[in-house]
Amino acid sequence: MSAVAITGASGYVGSAIARCFRKHGWEVIEMGRRSARKYELGGDVDWTGIEALVHCAWDFRLKRREDIERVNVQGSIRLMEGARAAGVKRGVFISSLSCFEGCRSLYGQGKLEVECAAARLGFASVRPGLVYGDTPGGMMGSLEKAVKASPLVPLIGDGSAPQYPVHEEDLAELVFTLCQSEHPPVEPISAASGEAIPFRELLARIAARNGNKPMFLPIPWRLILAGLRTMEWAGLNPPFRSDSLLGFIFQNPNPDFTMAHGITTFRAFQ
User: According to the CATH classification, is domain 3-261 in 3.10.290.10?
Assistant: First the structure.
């Protein structure tokens, strides 16, 4: 039986990828703070018997650039270098559509640095869009809760920022296919159906699925950014990080999904 190590396997995206590998008959070795095999970024790994690595873990608790660089960026690079040195030939780094040349967020910049290392080591990088499923978690889960919680839903700016949803199963199949490839693409792969849905319309569709029809309250994004940064400065943990807001506002203007669509199929968001 083939074995894959998945970091962050207890998270929303990592768990979906783990289910996919198990469905295809692979042994899944879950690595994370809450997993049977304890792992934190930068820690040592026993690579015995592992044929592929899927790296999903990222510590979102960190706010300072130097901490993100030390833990997330350098920890990720050491993990992949260790896997490669131990003979693990196939690997996939889970990046983000927030990651691209010229991105503004620390999150995107950190992911970009790790992508470069992954390419150097012969591993693939996948940039998922907004991941959803029958029981969504992560950002989509938070949006579901927001439209259910109140008939009045705050809207970032005018709500025109495009979103690119990707179903969790389609993303997982892409990652599984890449982990079987002898020569994965060097360029990062943007993964989504390719349909650009304005943020306001996305929220309206989510609400409609739950039988709701909320009213939207547009709020200037700079005002939201100032509020989030004030909360963070005060030591509070807002539901949405200021750095995530920068990634939301300053998106990749031209994501290219051609490469992903040549590997697997992606369903449209309903």
Answer: no
